[in-house]
TrEMBL record:
Residues 1-26 form the signal peptide. It comes from Camponotus floridanus (Florida carpenter ant). It comes from the Eukaryota. Residues 10-138 form the Ig-like domain. PANTHER family: BEAT PROTEIN. InterPro entries: Ig-like_dom, Ig-like_dom_sf. Keywords: Signal. This is Ig-like domain-containing protein.
Protein backbone atom coordinates (compact mmCIF):
# COMPACT_ATOMS: atom_id res chain seq x y z
CA UNK A 1 0.00 0.00 0.00
CA UNK A 2 2.77 2.29 0.96
CA UNK A 3 4.41 1.80 -2.40
CA UNK A 4 1.23 2.94 -4.19
CA UNK A 5 1.10 6.11 -2.14
CA UNK A 6 4.71 6.74 -3.00
CA UNK A 7 4.22 6.35 -6.73
CA UNK A 8 1.07 8.43 -6.89
CA UNK A 9 2.01 11.37 -4.71
CA UNK A 10 4.86 12.84 -6.79
CA UNK A 11 2.61 13.21 -9.81
CA UNK A 12 -0.11 14.86 -7.75
CA UNK A 13 2.45 17.30 -6.41
CA UNK A 14 3.68 17.97 -9.93
CA UNK A 15 0.14 18.66 -11.13
CA UNK A 16 -0.50 21.03 -8.24
CA UNK A 17 2.73 22.88 -8.87
CA UNK A 18 1.94 23.09 -12.58
CA UNK A 19 -1.57 24.40 -11.86
CA UNK A 20 -0.24 27.08 -9.50
CA UNK A 21 2.52 28.01 -11.88
CA UNK A 22 0.30 28.37 -14.94
CA UNK A 23 -2.28 30.35 -13.00
CA UNK A 24 0.33 32.86 -11.88
CA UNK A 25 2.25 32.93 -15.15
CA UNK A 26 -0.73 33.27 -17.46
CA UNK A 27 1.38 35.41 -19.75
CA UNK A 28 3.25 33.33 -22.28
CA UNK A 29 3.97 32.93 -25.99
CA UNK A 30 2.20 29.96 -27.53
CA UNK A 31 3.90 29.93 -30.90
CA UNK A 32 5.51 31.87 -33.71
CA UNK A 33 3.77 31.15 -36.94
CA UNK A 34 5.80 32.05 -40.03
CA UNK A 35 7.06 30.27 -43.12
CA UNK A 36 10.50 28.72 -42.86
CA UNK A 37 11.34 29.29 -46.53
CA UNK A 38 10.09 32.05 -48.80
CA UNK A 39 11.06 33.09 -52.28
CA UNK A 40 12.32 36.64 -52.74
CA UNK A 41 9.77 38.97 -54.31
CA UNK A 42 6.72 36.96 -53.22
CA UNK A 43 4.08 37.94 -50.68
CA UNK A 44 2.08 38.72 -48.70
CA UNK A 45 3.57 36.69 -45.86
CA UNK A 46 2.30 36.84 -42.27
CA UNK A 47 4.58 36.69 -39.27
CA UNK A 48 2.31 35.82 -36.34
CA UNK A 49 3.22 35.78 -32.68
CA UNK A 50 0.50 33.94 -30.76
CA UNK A 51 0.37 34.56 -27.02
CA UNK A 52 -1.72 34.53 -23.92
CA UNK A 53 -2.01 37.46 -21.54
CA UNK A 54 -3.14 37.02 -17.98
CA UNK A 55 -6.34 38.97 -17.27
CA UNK A 56 -4.71 40.83 -14.38
CA UNK A 57 -1.61 41.83 -16.30
CA UNK A 58 -1.26 45.43 -17.42
CA UNK A 59 1.22 47.33 -19.51
CA UNK A 60 1.38 45.05 -22.54
CA UNK A 61 4.22 45.81 -24.97
CA UNK A 62 4.95 43.61 -27.98
CA UNK A 63 8.26 43.83 -29.78
CA UNK A 64 9.77 42.05 -32.76
CA UNK A 65 13.47 41.76 -33.51
CA UNK A 66 15.28 40.67 -36.64
CA UNK A 67 18.82 39.40 -36.07
CA UNK A 68 18.77 41.21 -32.69
CA UNK A 69 17.70 44.57 -34.22
CA UNK A 70 14.36 45.84 -33.11
CA UNK A 71 11.96 46.24 -36.05
CA UNK A 72 8.57 46.67 -34.36
CA UNK A 73 6.90 47.90 -31.21
CA UNK A 74 3.25 47.77 -30.30
CA UNK A 75 1.77 49.34 -27.18
CA UNK A 76 -1.99 48.86 -27.59
CA UNK A 77 -4.24 50.71 -28.15
CA UNK A 78 -1.70 52.78 -30.12
CA UNK A 79 -0.76 51.60 -33.60
CA UNK A 80 2.30 49.38 -34.13
CA UNK A 81 5.47 51.20 -35.13
CA UNK A 82 8.08 49.67 -37.40
CA UNK A 83 11.61 50.46 -38.53
CA UNK A 84 14.43 48.80 -40.42
CA UNK A 85 13.95 45.95 -42.89
CA UNK A 86 10.16 45.82 -42.59
CA UNK A 87 9.54 49.55 -42.90
CA UNK A 88 7.38 50.29 -45.97
CA UNK A 89 6.66 46.56 -46.34
CA UNK A 90 4.47 45.92 -43.29
CA UNK A 91 0.70 46.09 -42.94
CA UNK A 92 -1.38 45.52 -39.84
CA UNK A 93 -4.72 43.76 -40.31
CA UNK A 94 -7.58 45.73 -38.69
CA UNK A 95 -8.90 42.60 -37.06
CA UNK A 96 -5.60 42.24 -35.18
CA UNK A 97 -5.45 45.90 -34.13
CA UNK A 98 -8.85 45.52 -32.47
CA UNK A 99 -7.77 42.41 -30.63
CA UNK A 100 -4.22 42.79 -29.29
CA UNK A 101 -4.46 40.32 -26.40
CA UNK A 102 -3.94 37.10 -28.33
CA UNK A 103 -1.61 37.73 -31.22
CA UNK A 104 0.47 40.20 -33.20
CA UNK A 105 0.53 39.99 -36.99
CA UNK A 106 3.10 41.59 -39.24
CA UNK A 107 1.89 41.23 -42.81
CA UNK A 108 4.79 41.66 -45.19
CA UNK A 109 3.46 42.79 -48.55
CA UNK A 110 6.59 41.76 -50.43
CA UNK A 111 9.49 39.64 -49.29
CA UNK A 112 12.98 41.04 -49.83
CA UNK A 113 16.32 39.31 -49.47
CA UNK A 114 17.13 41.44 -46.39
CA UNK A 115 14.28 39.75 -44.55
CA UNK A 116 16.18 36.47 -44.29
CA UNK A 117 17.25 35.55 -40.76
CA UNK A 118 16.06 35.01 -37.24
CA UNK A 119 12.96 36.71 -35.86
CA UNK A 120 12.18 37.09 -32.19
CA UNK A 121 8.88 38.15 -30.69
CA UNK A 122 8.85 39.42 -27.12
CA UNK A 123 5.86 40.30 -25.00
CA UNK A 124 6.09 42.05 -21.70
CA UNK A 125 3.69 43.29 -19.06
CA UNK A 126 4.41 45.02 -15.78
CA UNK A 127 5.06 41.63 -14.23
CA UNK A 128 6.24 39.24 -16.91
CA UNK A 129 8.22 38.87 -20.04
CA UNK A 130 8.37 36.11 -22.61
CA UNK A 131 10.09 35.62 -25.94
CA UNK A 132 10.22 33.14 -28.80
CA UNK A 133 12.19 33.03 -32.01
CA UNK A 134 12.09 31.40 -35.45
CA UNK A 135 14.09 31.53 -38.63
CA UNK A 136 12.90 32.50 -42.09
CA UNK A 137 15.10 31.89 -45.11
CA UNK A 138 14.53 34.06 -48.17
CA UNK A 139 15.93 32.43 -51.28
CA UNK A 140 16.57 33.67 -54.79
CA UNK A 141 16.53 31.19 -57.70
CA UNK A 142 19.52 31.14 -60.01
CA UNK A 143 19.60 33.46 -62.98
CA UNK A 144 21.93 31.14 -64.88
CA UNK A 145 23.26 27.61 -64.58
CA UNK A 146 25.67 26.06 -67.06
CA UNK A 147 27.52 22.79 -67.38
CA UNK A 148 30.50 22.71 -69.75
CA UNK A 149 33.47 20.59 -70.61
CA UNK A 150 36.92 21.89 -71.52
CA UNK A 151 39.90 19.87 -72.72
CA UNK A 152 42.37 19.74 -69.83
CA UNK A 153 45.25 17.78 -71.36
CA UNK A 154 45.62 14.83 -73.74
CA UNK A 155 44.03 12.37 -71.35
CA UNK A 156 41.76 14.41 -69.12
CA UNK A 157 38.80 16.77 -69.40
CA UNK A 158 37.68 19.57 -67.14
CA UNK A 159 33.98 19.46 -66.21
CA UNK A 160 32.61 22.69 -64.85
CA UNK A 161 29.32 23.74 -63.43
CA UNK A 162 28.63 27.42 -62.77
CA UNK A 163 25.61 28.99 -61.11
CA UNK A 164 24.93 32.69 -60.80
CA UNK A 165 22.31 34.61 -58.90
CA UNK A 166 21.20 31.95 -56.41
CA UNK A 167 20.97 32.90 -52.74
CA UNK A 168 21.77 31.82 -50.08
CA UNK A 169 24.94 30.25 -51.42
CA UNK A 170 24.07 26.98 -53.15
CA UNK A 171 26.07 23.77 -53.07
CA UNK A 172 26.97 22.02 -56.31
CA UNK A 173 27.60 18.42 -57.32
CA UNK A 174 28.71 16.92 -60.61
CA UNK A 175 27.57 13.51 -61.79
CA UNK A 176 29.01 11.49 -64.65
CA UNK A 177 26.55 8.84 -65.84
CA UNK A 178 24.75 9.23 -62.54
CA UNK A 179 27.81 8.81 -60.34
CA UNK A 180 29.05 11.71 -58.27
CA UNK A 181 32.60 12.75 -59.16
CA UNK A 182 34.41 14.91 -56.70
CA UNK A 183 38.01 13.71 -56.83
CA UNK A 184 40.44 16.55 -57.49
CA UNK A 185 37.51 18.91 -57.53
CA UNK A 186 37.90 22.58 -57.11
CA UNK A 187 35.06 24.67 -55.97
CA UNK A 188 35.14 28.39 -56.27
CA UNK A 189 34.48 30.19 -53.02
CA UNK A 190 34.23 33.54 -54.74
CA UNK A 191 30.73 34.25 -53.53
CA UNK A 192 29.38 37.66 -52.54
CA UNK A 193 25.84 38.76 -51.90
CA UNK A 194 26.16 41.38 -54.63
CA UNK A 195 27.61 38.96 -57.16
CA UNK A 196 26.41 35.51 -56.15
CA UNK A 197 28.35 33.09 -58.30
CA UNK A 198 29.59 29.62 -57.48
CA UNK A 199 31.36 27.08 -59.62
CA UNK A 200 32.72 23.59 -59.38
CA UNK A 201 35.40 21.99 -61.60
CA UNK A 202 36.25 18.33 -61.69
CA UNK A 203 39.11 16.93 -63.78
CA UNK A 204 38.39 13.42 -64.98
CA UNK A 205 39.85 11.00 -67.47
CA UNK A 206 38.45 11.53 -70.94
CA UNK A 207 35.72 9.14 -72.02
CA UNK A 208 35.29 7.16 -75.19
CA UNK A 209 31.55 7.14 -75.46
CA UNK A 210 28.98 9.91 -75.34
CA UNK A 211 28.43 10.58 -71.66
CA UNK A 212 25.71 12.21 -69.62
CA UNK A 213 27.06 14.91 -67.35
CA UNK A 214 24.78 16.41 -64.80
CA UNK A 215 25.15 19.18 -62.27
CA UNK A 216 22.94 19.43 -59.24
CA UNK A 217 22.50 22.65 -57.35
CA UNK A 218 20.78 22.89 -54.03
CA UNK A 219 20.21 25.73 -51.63
CA UNK A 220 20.99 24.50 -48.11
CA UNK A 221 18.12 24.35 -45.61
CA UNK A 222 15.57 24.72 -48.41
CA UNK A 223 13.98 22.23 -50.76
CA UNK A 224 15.14 24.25 -53.73
CA UNK A 225 16.98 22.03 -56.17
CA UNK A 226 17.84 22.19 -59.81
CA UNK A 227 19.62 19.93 -62.25
CA UNK A 228 21.21 20.73 -65.55
CA UNK A 229 22.28 17.97 -67.92
CA UNK A 230 24.41 17.81 -71.03
CA UNK A 231 25.61 14.97 -73.20
CA UNK A 232 29.33 15.08 -73.72
CA UNK A 233 30.65 13.82 -77.04
CA UNK A 234 34.30 12.81 -76.69
CA UNK A 235 36.72 14.46 -79.11
CA UNK A 236 37.48 11.16 -80.88
CA UNK A 237 33.84 10.90 -81.84
CA UNK A 238 33.44 14.58 -82.46
CA UNK A 239 36.03 14.93 -85.18
CA UNK A 240 34.01 13.00 -87.78
CA UNK A 241 31.06 15.22 -88.33
CA UNK A 242 30.49 18.91 -88.17
CA UNK A 243 27.12 18.84 -86.55
CA UNK A 244 27.53 16.30 -83.81
CA UNK A 245 28.54 18.51 -80.93
CA UNK A 246 25.00 18.01 -79.88
CA UNK A 247 23.68 19.36 -76.64
CA UNK A 248 20.74 18.08 -74.80
CA UNK A 249 19.54 19.81 -71.70
CA UNK A 250 17.06 18.74 -69.20
CA UNK A 251 16.23 20.94 -66.25
CA UNK A 252 13.87 20.47 -63.43
CA UNK A 253 13.49 21.96 -60.05
CA UNK A 254 11.60 21.23 -56.92
CA UNK A 255 10.58 23.72 -54.28
C1 LIG B 1 14.20 40.19 -55.08
O1 LIG B 1 12.92 40.49 -55.58
C2 LIG B 1 12.75 41.85 -55.92
C3 LIG B 1 11.32 42.05 -56.30
O2 LIG B 1 10.89 41.13 -57.27
C4 LIG B 1 13.71 42.22 -57.05
O3 LIG B 1 13.57 43.58 -57.37
C5 LIG B 1 15.13 41.95 -56.57
O4 LIG B 1 16.04 42.18 -57.63
C6 LIG B 1 15.26 40.52 -56.11
N1 LIG B 1 16.58 40.33 -55.53
C7 LIG B 1 17.47 39.49 -56.03
C8 LIG B 1 18.77 39.41 -55.33
O5 LIG B 1 17.22 38.79 -57.00
C1 LIG C 1 46.52 15.18 -67.38
O1 LIG C 1 46.16 15.66 -66.08
C2 LIG C 1 45.90 14.64 -65.13
C3 LIG C 1 45.36 15.29 -63.87
O2 LIG C 1 46.22 16.29 -63.41
C4 LIG C 1 47.12 13.81 -64.91
O3 LIG C 1 46.86 12.76 -63.98
C5 LIG C 1 47.57 13.22 -66.24
O4 LIG C 1 48.78 12.52 -66.08
C6 LIG C 1 47.75 14.32 -67.28
N1 LIG C 1 48.00 13.69 -68.57
C7 LIG C 1 48.96 14.14 -69.42
C8 LIG C 1 49.07 13.43 -70.72
O5 LIG C 1 49.68 15.07 -69.10
C1 LIG D 1 38.32 24.27 -65.68
O1 LIG D 1 37.72 25.17 -66.60
C2 LIG D 1 37.25 26.37 -66.03
C3 LIG D 1 36.57 27.18 -67.12
O2 LIG D 1 37.41 27.43 -68.19
C4 LIG D 1 38.43 27.14 -65.44
O3 LIG D 1 37.97 28.32 -64.83
C5 LIG D 1 39.08 26.25 -64.39
O4 LIG D 1 40.23 26.89 -63.86
C6 LIG D 1 39.48 24.92 -64.98
N1 LIG D 1 39.96 24.06 -63.91
C7 LIG D 1 41.20 23.60 -63.88
C8 LIG D 1 41.56 22.73 -62.72
O5 LIG D 1 42.00 23.86 -64.76
C1 LIG E 1 32.65 12.70 -52.64
O1 LIG E 1 31.53 11.86 -52.94
C2 LIG E 1 31.38 10.75 -52.06
C3 LIG E 1 30.24 9.86 -52.58
O2 LIG E 1 29.44 10.47 -53.50
C4 LIG E 1 31.13 11.27 -50.67
O3 LIG E 1 30.99 10.19 -49.78
C5 LIG E 1 32.28 12.15 -50.24
O4 LIG E 1 32.01 12.72 -48.97
C6 LIG E 1 32.51 13.28 -51.23
N1 LIG E 1 33.71 14.02 -50.88
C7 LIG E 1 33.75 15.33 -50.86
C8 LIG E 1 35.06 15.95 -50.54
O5 LIG E 1 32.77 16.01 -51.12
C1 LIG F 1 32.53 6.66 -80.59
O1 LIG F 1 31.36 6.29 -79.85
C2 LIG F 1 30.91 4.98 -80.07
C3 LIG F 1 29.64 4.74 -79.28
O2 LIG F 1 28.82 5.83 -79.28
C4 LIG F 1 32.00 4.01 -79.61
O3 LIG F 1 31.57 2.69 -79.84
C5 LIG F 1 33.28 4.28 -80.35
O4 LIG F 1 34.30 3.46 -79.86
C6 LIG F 1 33.68 5.72 -80.24
N1 LIG F 1 34.81 5.99 -81.12
C7 LIG F 1 36.02 6.23 -80.69
C8 LIG F 1 37.06 6.46 -81.74
O5 LIG F 1 36.31 6.26 -79.50
C1 LIG G 1 33.78 8.38 -87.14
O1 LIG G 1 34.54 7.93 -88.28
C2 LIG G 1 34.97 6.61 -88.14
C3 LIG G 1 35.83 6.31 -89.31
O2 LIG G 1 35.33 6.85 -90.49
C4 LIG G 1 33.74 5.68 -88.09
O3 LIG G 1 34.17 4.35 -87.95
C5 LIG G 1 32.92 6.07 -86.91
O4 LIG G 1 31.72 5.30 -86.86
C6 LIG G 1 32.53 7.54 -86.95
N1 LIG G 1 31.86 7.89 -85.74
C7 LIG G 1 30.70 8.50 -85.72
C8 LIG G 1 30.14 8.83 -84.38
O5 LIG G 1 30.10 8.82 -86.74
Amino acid sequence: MLSIVHTVSPSIITLLIFACYSEVHGTSIKSLDMPHIVRNGTGPVDLICIYEIDKDDNGLVIKWFHEAYQIYQWIPPMLPQDIGIIKDFAEYPAENLKNPYSHSIIRLKTITIDMTGEYMCTISTFQYEASASAKMIVYVPESDMTVRTYPFNKTHVNLTCAVTGAQPRPSLRLYVEGIERNESSESSIDWHKDDPRVSLDVIIEDMLDPTVIECEMLIPDTEYKRRERIVYYPSSNRSNATDNIAFETNNFFVI
